[in-house]
Hints:
Layout: H1 15-20, H2 29-49, H3 53-68, H4 76-83, H5 86-94, E1 132-141, E2 151-155, E3 177-181, E4 187-193, E5 198-199, H6 205-212, E6 218-219, E7 222-228, E8 235-241, E9 260-261, E10 264-265, E11 273-276, E12 279-281
Parallel strand pairs: 1-11, 1-12, 8-9
Antiparallel strand pairs: 1-4, 2-3, 2-7, 5-6, 7-8, 10-11
Amino acid sequence: xxxxxxxxxxxxxxxxxxxxxxxxxxxxxxxxxxxxxxxxxxxxxxxxxxxxxxxxxxxxxxxxxxxxxxxxxxxxxxxxxxxxxxxxxxxxxxxxxxxxxxxxxxxxxxxxxxxxxxxxxxxxxxxxxxxxxxxxxxxxxxxxxxxxxxxxxxxxxxxxxxxxxxxxxxxxxxxxxxxxxxxxxxxxxxxxxxxxxxxxxxxxxxxxxxxxxxxxxxxxxxxxxxxxxxxxxxxxxxxxxxxxxxxxxxxxxxxxxxxxxxxxxxxxxxxxxxxxxxxxxxxxx
Length: 285
Ligand code: BEZ
Ligand code: FE
């Protein structure tokens, strides 16, 4: 009879060890740690729910379709991370701030770089015939002192609930996008539209999953902001429209109470609406 060397082969009981023991000494320590913990949790999940062969086939097919529908403009894996609450969890872990500092929320897939700077007060809406909204406030530090030279990068959907990049043949480039720099008083103001709630792209596998789970795909109306200033923690956030019906069921879990703000109707003004919000930045140097 052939003598076989004694090897600990893969079994259900020692599945985690069987995989993690293969990692070589030359592997990057952080990568090895992250992958070993991933295998640990993944195997625990498979054992917990006793995944059937058919279910595993469906899961692989779902991931295949998620990859196949993704391209430079369509980022289905980010959507998957968003609707599973993972994007917000990573955001929370990486943006712990002292009380009083403006809170972060999810970036989303519709931010773009390279939007030209506008003069303070400019109107970022390039489609006519819409009700405009004045956004205004001050960028301050945790002591309430104004921050000069803060960069404010803003973007929102249009009144039909689409970002310019979703409708390149319909909307003008950079519609509802702007970049502004504060002066000595730290103040900002610009005109846009009062944002509307909209569904995240739901014509792919993530949308199908939401439907199968009895979840709607909608986000409450919001204006996106990235506020950066030298020596301060950068804030990636939104302001949410008070009273929106989806505030308590945001498809991507982005809402925080401190980010909900009033949009008041303006009587006798050049805009129809006004929203005032001060951003408080935490000093890091
Ligand atoms: C957004 O707010 O633009 C967004 C965030 C997550 C998923 C889809 C859209
Ligand atoms: Fe958005």
